[in-house]
Amino acid sequence: MHNLNAWCSSEIESLKARSLFHLPKVHFGPAGARTVVNGKKVIQLSNNSYLGLSTHPKVVEAARKAIEKYGVGSGAVRPISGTMDLHNECEERLARFKKTESCLLFQSGFTANVGVVSTLAVEGDHIISDELNHASIIDGCRLSKASRAVYRHKDYGHLRELLREARGPKSIKGKILVVTDGVFSMDGDVADLKACADACDEFDAITMVDDAHATGVLGAQGRGTVDEQHVHERWSLTVGTLSKAIPVVGGYFAGPRVVKEYLIAKARPFLFSCSAPPPVVAAVIACIDVMETEPQHLKKLWDNTKFFKDGLKKLGFNTGDSTTPVTPVIVGQGAKAAKFSDILFNNGVFAQGIYFPMVAEEKSRVRTIVSAAHSREDLQEALDVFKKCGKELGLI
Ligand SMILES: Cc1ncc(COP(=O)(O)O)c(C=O)c1O
To answer: By the 8 A CB rule, do 203 and 164 touch?
Structure first.
């Protein structure tokens, strides 16, 4: 028998030697501002529940009622017998929220990206992707039979060059799909969708944005980057997640109805993986209700973002180009980021270290994410801990 265990052990040892092996910390309570992690009380700065909705009474109640009515799972993939009226209602609500013609649910943002990119870009087509796009977009490109190219991060001049090359010397006669994150998950900076659409229009390319970190955060009532930048009329496709500001689980495509119908016929995650459980779908619908009727969460998120980001900058940390609630504190090497994250944790702040392969080794960081659930006291206390630990490590 092949000694797979020995191979895994030696790979793990090599990761450990480079401080690249980390088991996930365990949480003993809801995703809130303060939580218990590995038995220790900490201020939480690593959660994507931007609006603090995971314990919102209306959301919890909707999930409870859905379990009573439908049970805990659909028991089938969507095209066989896994489509309930709740799934259709959720798709209609999300489409209205995103101001698109239609929406299609997937099991996660990851499978939505993989499914949409690999299904729509086929042999003879070409995909052009921002170099800092999420792993699920990269995997969608890998699964697609289309050729591909990568443009330098948010460099729309470079995107134009690649488009020109594709339509010229490369003679791409098929579709060209240009894909970008809306908010980049590790840096918290925002794509310029207008500049991207300008370049795409010139070369007859299709635009796609992954709005995972923008939905619930940017635009009116949190409708996302397309709304924030007023490009609804110029934008083709959106993919999103239901695991961040809508803090449940799942993903979705939002765009033209005919594209949705094609995905229903062809997208493999839709065809071959079970549909979302009823309490999940009901909770998502309730989150949309809350986002549309309770603007105070979005306002508090941005007040908190400004306070915390300004605080980190004043302390002298390198916070990169972030303009959103995702604020990196860039420290350099992975080992240093791991150490920083550890000493922050020991002092009562949970800010996850982010290292290769999530970011380039020299851009290793701890990533902070504030939410509407944090109070000023939580954030001030976190800043005090950052100051103490940053000095200890010689970062400031
Ligand atoms: C930009 C981006 N896209 C997609 C995903 C995947 O979303 P999900 O957690 O729903 O699979 C993430 C999750 O981290 C993300 O940050």
So the answer is: yes
Active site residue 213: yes
Closest ligand 1 atom to residue 111 Cα is: 11
Taking CA atoms only, the protein residue closest to ligand 1 atom 7 is 109
- 190, part of any domain: yes
Q: pLDDT at position 17, please?
A: 87
Which residue, judged by its Cα, is nearest atom 14 of ligand 1? 185
Residues 6+ apart with CB under 8 A from 272: 77
212: CA distance to ligand 1 center in Å?
A: 6
Which of 276, 309, 340 is the endpoint of a domain? 276
Query: 32 and 87 in one domain?
Result: no
For 64-96, write each residue's pLDDT tens digit: 999 999 999 999 999 999 999 999 999 999 999
CATH of the domain at 260: 3.40.640.10
115-137, pLDDT tens digit by residue?
A: 999 999 999 999 999 999 999 99
Separation in Å, CA 204 to CA 130, 151, 152, 289? 18, 17, 20, 37
Reported as a single tens digit per residue, the pLDDT across 260-275 is: 999 999 999 999 999 9
End residue of a domain, out of 214, 243, 276: 276
Name the catalytic one among 244, 260, 336, 374.
244
Q: 372-396 pLDDT, tens per residue?
A: 999 999 999 999 999 999 999 999 9
Report the distance separating Cα 28 and Cα 30, nearest Å. Answer: 7
Q: Domain of 192?
A: 74-276
